[in-house]
Design brief:
single chain; Double Stranded RNA Binding Domain; 4-stranded antiparallel β-sheet
Length: about 180
């Protein structure tokens, strides 16, 4: 006969994570699945440099506080930051393991958590920064530079030589709108 739960106490959903089995540590530690409930204290910095180099099986390896090492089926490893905004879970890529080490990934995740505390959406912050950077780069190019780059890029695609601008281009002498 199943045991009855005490009234008022809700069972927290269980999640499956990859972590060292038992009290093992060091080179003999085996990675396995650990089921954790919502009553556990928040653990941060669970991954070590050694456990990251040994993480070869496809799946997610949690470091804590939203930082996740993702190992794909092809064997590529990358860092993710997981967070929830308005009840919807988001994943933000922080970079490949080849270019971003553990300390840098933790620093980037800390910056994302700080943005969340300020009420900002980390993905939107990154998108707006990229847009602002692209806008400043676009403003650096003049019309003449843009036209010269266009002609250079499309010169080989013109079938007839008379369509290609020959000699000095006409646009510097033409009035601009």
């Amino acid at each position: 006969m199943p045991r009855k739960r005490a009234a008022g106490r809700r069972r927290m959903p269980l999640t499956t994570i990859k972590a060292p089995l038992g009290n093992q540590s060091g080179p003999d530690a085996r990675m396995g699945e650990v089921r954790s409930g919502g009553d556990m204290a928040l653990q941060v910095n669970k991954l070590s440099a050694l456990s990251i180099t040994r993480a070869r099986a496809p799946g997610y390896y949690f470091d804590g506080a939203g930082l996740v090492l993702q190992v794909s089926r092809s064997g590529s490893r990358s860092w993710l930051f997981r967070y929830v905004v308005a009840g919807k879970r988001h994943e933000m890529g922080l970079g490949s393991l080849q270019t971003v080490d553990l300390a840098s990934a933790r620093k980037r995740a800390r910056e994302c958590r700080a943005a969340l505390l300020d009420g900002q959406h980390p993905l939107e912050v990154r998108r707006s920064a990229r847009t602002a950077h692209a806008l400043t780069r676009a403003k650096l190019m003049t019309f003449d530079q843009c036209a010269a780059a266009y002609v250079q890029a499309h010169r080989g695609s013109w079938k007839n030589a008379k369509h290609a601008p020959n000699g000095r281009p006409r646009w510097p002498t033409m009035p601009l709108p």
